[in-house]
Amino acid sequence: MGRDREVRPDGLEERVVKIRRCAAVVKGGRRFSFNALVVVGDRNGRVSWGYGKANEVPPAVEKATKDAHETLRRQPRMQLKDQTIPHRIIGRFGGSRVVMVPAGPGTGVKAGPGVRDVLEACGIHNILTKTHGSTNPLNLVKATIQGLMLLRTREAVAQLRGVTL
Questions:
Q1: What is the CA angle 113-118-121, rounded to 5?
Q2: Sign of the CA dihedral 52, 70, 4, 108?
Q3: Helices (DSSP H) in 9-112: which residue ranges?
């Protein structure tokens, strides 16, 4: 696989979403540093993101990957049925809005770059998405994960309401 996607021996998939270059003007010219945004998932409902900064690209990616692995343990596991989400949901973060709609088998992942990386790392194969507002990759990734954390199954909603299906 390419540099932007890597599967580790423990089954976790790492995806580099975005690498940005930042310049600081100093007396001798410009000093560059790099920021990396990485998404890590097990393709079975667990997903997390990490952000790292360094003076070179490989250390920035390593820091972002380490950050993602640390937060992965705390994420709740989502139950995916038919490789899609159970209901329509809107994820919000900052100026970004991500609308996610369940889709039938064979549809595929209809999503932009940052959103697609999160959904595929999570293990979702059939979904329709639309982004509104800011297209900042970091905000899109956070909005997508926030939306996925809001998902509930029919059984969970019935139990919360105290009714039987």
A1: 120
A2: negative
A3: 57-72
Residues facing 26 on adjacent strands: 29
Which long-range contacts link 57-63 to residues 24+ away (Cβ below 8 Å)?
A: 57/19, 60/19, 60/34, 60/35, 60/36, 61/16, 61/19, 61/36, 63/36
- Can you list the positions of beta strands (E) in 4-161? 5-7, 13-26, 29-41, 47-54, 89-93, 96-102, 109-110, 127-133
33's tokens: 């540093």
Q: Determine contact, residues 121/69, Cβ cutoff 8 Å.
A: no
Q: How far is CA 85 from the centre of its chain?
A: 15
Determine the longest span between alpha carbons in the chain, in angstroms: 71
pLDDT tens figures, 87-122: 899 999 999 999 999 999 999 999 999 999 999 998
